[in-house]
Design goal:
0% of the residues lie in helices and 51% in strands. The protein has 130 residues and is an all-beta fold. The strands form two sheets. The chain has a five-stranded antiparallel sheet, with no helix packed on it. It starts with 11 loop residues before the first strand and ends in a 12-residue tail after the last strand. The model has no long low-confidence stretch (mean pLDDT 87).
Length: 130
């Protein structure tokens, strides 16, 4: 959605044009992703592909900071491996890693994460209706 108040008065300059408003038009985005995986009792292996495209917008200029109207496109790949402990039930270890394959107005980072999680239910389980 649009940004209602840019906190710099009621003026901004974008794409060669001056705007006298404190509300910024933010271009729409289209994103999609696909994932494939394999799950066995204690293991989960997953691979994801994600793409994001800004429908409009301008490039980030060398002398300016990023701005909500900038075009930011990217594609990433991501992998995940989880191991679920049998005892104690609910404890799992997760390894996640990914890379930005391509992009416009974005970097191309590698990213990774190692975590220990405990999964628990918040609601009482209800028996299925037959």
């Amino acid at each position: 959605s649009n940004v209602p108040d840019i906190h710099r008065g009621e003026f901004y300059f974008d794409n060669g044009e001056a705007y006298y408003s404190n509300e910024i038009y933010v271009p729409n985005q289209f994103d999609w992703g696909a994932a494939v995986g394999y799950k066995k009792t204690n293991f989960l292996i997953e691979a994801d592909y994600t793409a994001n495209y800004t429908l409009g917008g301008t490039d980030i200029r060398t002398w300016d900071a990023g701005f909500p109207t900038n075009k930011v496109n990217y594609t990433t790949v991501y992998g995940r491996v989880d191991y679920y402990m049998s005892n104690p039930k609910g404890l799992n270890f997760s390894l996640n890693a990914g890379y930005t394959l391509s992009g416009r107005n974005t970097g191309k980072p590698y990213f990774f994460n190692i975590s220990v999680n405990y999964l628990f239910g918040l609601w009482k389980k209800v028996a299925p209706v037959e």
